Amino acid sequence: MNSFFLLILGLPAIEIFVLIKVGQQVGALNTILLIFLTAILGLYYARIQGLNTIKSALGNIYQNKPPLYEIISGASIAFGSILLIIPGFITDTIGFLIIIPFTRKILINRLLKGNLKSKASQNNEIMEGEIIDKDNKRKDDL
After folding, report:
1. Quick check: is 82 in a domain?
2. How do residues 18-40 score in pLDDT, each as one tens digit?
Protein backbone atom coordinates (compact mmCIF):
# COMPACT_ATOMS: atom_id res chain seq x y z
CA MET A 1 0.00 0.00 0.00
CA ASN A 2 2.86 2.35 0.80
CA SER A 3 4.58 1.86 -2.57
CA PHE A 4 1.27 2.37 -4.39
CA PHE A 5 0.77 5.65 -2.52
CA LEU A 6 4.28 6.75 -3.47
CA LEU A 7 3.60 5.83 -7.09
CA ILE A 8 0.41 7.91 -7.15
CA LEU A 9 2.23 10.93 -5.75
CA GLY A 10 5.64 10.42 -7.33
CA LEU A 11 4.72 9.67 -10.93
CA PRO A 12 2.82 12.94 -11.57
CA ALA A 13 5.61 14.92 -9.89
CA ILE A 14 8.24 13.29 -12.09
CA GLU A 15 6.03 13.76 -15.18
CA ILE A 16 5.62 17.48 -14.44
CA PHE A 17 9.38 17.83 -13.92
CA VAL A 18 10.12 16.13 -17.25
CA LEU A 19 7.46 18.20 -19.04
CA ILE A 20 9.00 21.42 -17.68
CA LYS A 21 12.52 20.38 -18.71
CA VAL A 22 11.39 19.37 -22.22
CA GLY A 23 9.36 22.60 -22.46
CA GLN A 24 12.47 24.62 -21.63
CA GLN A 25 14.41 22.89 -24.39
CA VAL A 26 11.88 22.82 -27.25
CA GLY A 27 9.23 25.33 -26.19
CA ALA A 28 5.81 25.02 -24.62
CA LEU A 29 3.79 24.70 -27.84
CA ASN A 30 6.12 22.05 -29.26
CA THR A 31 5.92 20.10 -25.99
CA ILE A 32 2.11 20.12 -26.10
CA LEU A 33 2.13 19.06 -29.75
CA LEU A 34 4.60 16.30 -28.94
CA ILE A 35 2.33 14.99 -26.17
CA PHE A 36 -0.64 14.91 -28.55
CA LEU A 37 1.46 13.30 -31.30
CA THR A 38 2.68 10.49 -29.03
CA ALA A 39 -0.87 9.86 -27.82
CA ILE A 40 -2.31 9.71 -31.36
CA LEU A 41 0.49 7.54 -32.76
CA GLY A 42 0.43 5.27 -29.74
CA LEU A 43 -3.31 4.72 -29.87
CA TYR A 44 -3.18 4.03 -33.60
CA TYR A 45 -0.40 1.48 -33.09
CA ALA A 46 -2.28 -0.01 -30.12
CA ARG A 47 -5.33 -0.48 -32.34
CA ILE A 48 -3.26 -2.33 -34.94
CA GLN A 49 -1.64 -4.54 -32.28
CA GLY A 50 -5.03 -5.21 -30.68
CA LEU A 51 -6.47 -6.39 -33.99
CA ASN A 52 -3.44 -8.62 -34.57
CA THR A 53 -3.90 -10.10 -31.10
CA ILE A 54 -7.57 -10.82 -31.81
CA LYS A 55 -6.63 -12.55 -35.09
CA SER A 56 -4.03 -14.65 -33.28
CA ALA A 57 -6.51 -15.57 -30.55
CA LEU A 58 -9.11 -16.66 -33.12
CA GLY A 59 -6.46 -18.78 -34.85
CA ASN A 60 -5.67 -20.50 -31.55
CA ILE A 61 -9.35 -21.07 -30.83
CA TYR A 62 -9.84 -22.68 -34.27
CA GLN A 63 -6.91 -24.99 -33.47
CA ASN A 64 -8.46 -25.87 -30.08
CA LYS A 65 -5.60 -24.20 -28.20
CA PRO A 66 -6.29 -21.92 -25.25
CA PRO A 67 -5.49 -18.29 -26.17
CA LEU A 68 -3.81 -17.57 -22.81
CA TYR A 69 -0.98 -15.46 -24.23
CA GLU A 70 -3.42 -13.49 -26.39
CA ILE A 71 -5.66 -12.72 -23.41
CA ILE A 72 -2.72 -11.43 -21.37
CA SER A 73 -1.39 -9.60 -24.42
CA GLY A 74 -4.76 -7.91 -25.02
CA ALA A 75 -4.95 -6.78 -21.42
CA SER A 76 -1.43 -5.40 -21.58
CA ILE A 77 -2.24 -3.55 -24.82
CA ALA A 78 -5.25 -1.97 -23.09
CA PHE A 79 -3.05 -0.95 -20.15
CA GLY A 80 -0.43 0.45 -22.51
CA SER A 81 -3.12 2.44 -24.31
CA ILE A 82 -4.27 3.95 -21.03
CA LEU A 83 -0.68 4.95 -20.30
CA LEU A 84 -0.46 6.58 -23.72
CA ILE A 85 -3.60 8.62 -23.09
CA ILE A 86 -2.19 10.00 -19.83
CA PRO A 87 -0.14 13.09 -20.73
CA GLY A 88 3.56 12.73 -20.03
CA PHE A 89 6.70 11.35 -21.54
CA ILE A 90 7.43 8.70 -18.92
CA THR A 91 3.98 7.11 -19.17
CA ASP A 92 4.21 7.31 -22.97
CA THR A 93 7.55 5.49 -22.90
CA ILE A 94 6.18 2.75 -20.66
CA GLY A 95 3.04 2.53 -22.82
CA PHE A 96 5.08 2.16 -26.02
CA LEU A 97 7.24 -0.52 -24.39
CA ILE A 98 4.11 -2.46 -23.50
CA ILE A 99 2.55 -2.10 -26.95
CA ILE A 100 5.63 -3.10 -28.97
CA PRO A 101 5.30 -6.89 -29.53
CA PHE A 102 8.93 -7.76 -28.77
CA THR A 103 9.08 -6.03 -25.40
CA ARG A 104 5.52 -7.07 -24.53
CA LYS A 105 6.47 -10.71 -25.04
CA ILE A 106 9.50 -10.31 -22.75
CA LEU A 107 7.36 -8.64 -20.06
CA ILE A 108 4.63 -11.29 -20.25
CA ASN A 109 7.15 -14.14 -20.12
CA ARG A 110 8.78 -12.64 -17.02
CA LEU A 111 5.38 -12.17 -15.43
CA LEU A 112 4.34 -15.76 -16.16
CA LYS A 113 7.67 -17.25 -15.04
CA GLY A 114 7.59 -15.34 -11.76
CA ASN A 115 3.96 -16.32 -11.19
CA LEU A 116 4.61 -19.99 -11.98
CA LYS A 117 7.62 -20.11 -9.65
CA SER A 118 5.63 -18.69 -6.76
CA LYS A 119 2.77 -21.15 -7.38
CA ALA A 120 5.20 -24.07 -7.61
CA SER A 121 6.81 -23.17 -4.30
CA GLN A 122 3.40 -23.04 -2.63
CA ASN A 123 2.30 -26.49 -3.85
CA ASN A 124 5.05 -28.55 -2.19
CA GLU A 125 2.69 -30.13 0.33
CA ILE A 126 1.83 -33.80 -0.12
CA MET A 127 -1.44 -35.12 1.20
CA GLU A 128 -1.81 -38.84 1.82
CA GLY A 129 -5.09 -40.70 2.08
CA GLU A 130 -6.75 -44.03 1.52
CA ILE A 131 -9.89 -45.03 -0.31
CA ILE A 132 -12.60 -46.63 1.78
CA ASP A 133 -15.55 -48.51 0.26
CA LYS A 134 -19.19 -47.77 1.15
CA ASP A 135 -19.16 -50.55 3.70
CA ASN A 136 -16.19 -48.91 5.44
CA LYS A 137 -13.86 -51.63 4.21
CA ARG A 138 -10.45 -50.89 2.82
CA LYS A 139 -9.83 -51.70 -0.82
CA ASP A 140 -6.89 -53.90 0.25
CA ASP A 141 -9.20 -56.12 2.31
CA LEU A 142 -11.39 -56.99 -0.66
Report:
1. yes
2. 999 999 999 999 999 999 999 89
